[in-house]
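Record type: ASSEMBLY
Status: queued
Input:
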Amino acid sequence: MKEHESDTLSKTNRINLLFDFYEPLLTEKQRTFLKYYFLDDFTLGEIAAESGISRQAVYEHIKRAEQVLESYESKLGLLAKHELLMRHAEELTLTVKRLTLPQEREKQLLAGIERLRDRTND
Amino acid sequence: MKEHESDTLSKTNRINLLFDFYEPLLTEKQRTFLKYYFLDDFTLGEIAAESGISRQAVYEHIKRAEQVLESYESKLGLLAKHELLMRHAEELTLTVKRLTLPQEREKQLLAGIERLRDRTND
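Status: finished
Output:
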């Protein structure tokens, strides 16, 4: 994979993650354009045709919506905190496994860690 | 303690917690009035005198700022998620203690749980 493609992928990935965290704070318009472009993978031209506005206008809507997501992240840091939580949960999982406890007890602890990771799904 | 006083305290407590989570999203004005009233415990009259606006206007600023906090909570649920995380961490701590592991291993696990709880301070 070329460096450029890898950059694009990691940017798409980041926008998708930020979208997951901050979607409820976006306007309907911001939500729609980001979805078209980053989730559905439409081109600017396709979105322009679909929305009846110029390719340039679509581009600006998307740029602006990205900035809104990054601005929320710089204020609340939910993605950064989530990544830290996942790292600490992973470390704790390794610590538990290194203890080589009786299977039932290990299972109990790992289930407890799983609940900490998945708290957003409760 | 009278029921009314207990209600007021638990409301103050809730607003203070929401303020901790959503302060970065507030305007300067919202932040200032909430701080005066809920953190510094000034009366409406004192804030009015300090700000050079009417008691009624202060009251409306505070009401509005409370609604903004509750609106963010209804969208992002950070306080609810935090409380769930704390509850799961507490349960996991109890599970670890019930295992009666050698002291060094128990300490290691509890430190790992502590990191999960305190992730916002990293």
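Annotation: Chain A touches chain B through 27 residues (CB under 8 Å).
Annotation: Chain A has two domains: 3-76, 80-120.
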